[in-house]
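Notebook entry, cofactor series.
This is the third protein in the set we're modelling with a bound small molecule. For this one the ligand is coenzyme A. I'm keeping the input format identical across the series so the outputs can be compared line by line later. Sequence and SMILES below, as received.
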Amino acid sequence: MKIRKLCPGENPPWELLELADPSRMIVEGYVKSSGVYVGEISGEIRAVYVLKETEKVVVEIMNIAVDEVHQGKGLGKQLISHAINEASKRGYAQIEIGTGNSSIHQLKLYQQCGFRIVSVDFDYFTRSYDEPIYENGLLCRDMIRLCYTFES
Ligand SMILES: CC(C)(COP(=O)(O)OP(=O)(O)OC[C@H]1O[C@@H](n2cnc3c(N)ncnc32)[C@H](O)[C@@H]1OP(=O)(O)O)[C@@H](O)C(=O)NCCC(=O)NCCS
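Returned structure with ligand:
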């Protein structure tokens, strides 16, 4: 998979972005002020991640998705590794990512990539989304926040 930054004026891959975040309104809100990186296979966009500066030395992966056909083949890990390299090249000290308490596989993936749990935003999802979200037999209520810190 080849990963590149989307050029200004290119359309973000909304369907992929909505796989990770069902609220188009929320996605539109952060996409404008972020870098959107796409993963292409044979010239087709199959994966995406969004990197936003949240503080002077901190970036956040706001969204990450691989299309359903290509999931489970290591592309998610490739996207995160690319994000870590990008953030490192640009001199950031930390990368953050947040996911739901019910997103068991994502929690595994992020920890495998070196992220550690730093905090919990209790009831974030029940507060922010109109419809309840269920995954893996669990109500998604809380935002688990994880952080990757570069060694200095
Ligand atoms: C989360 C996501 C980006 C991971 O991408 P991926 O290409 O499927 O992930 P990988 O193939 O690199 O898997 C990496 C690890 O995560 C685990 N994993 C990730 N998603 C999984 C899933 N849906 N089911 C089972 N395992 C999963 C795998 O077990 C794998 O671990 P292993 O190497 O020990 O086997 C992808 O599943 C996706 O787009 N999901 C929908 C959108 C989403 O939930 N985004 C994140 C919102 S916080």
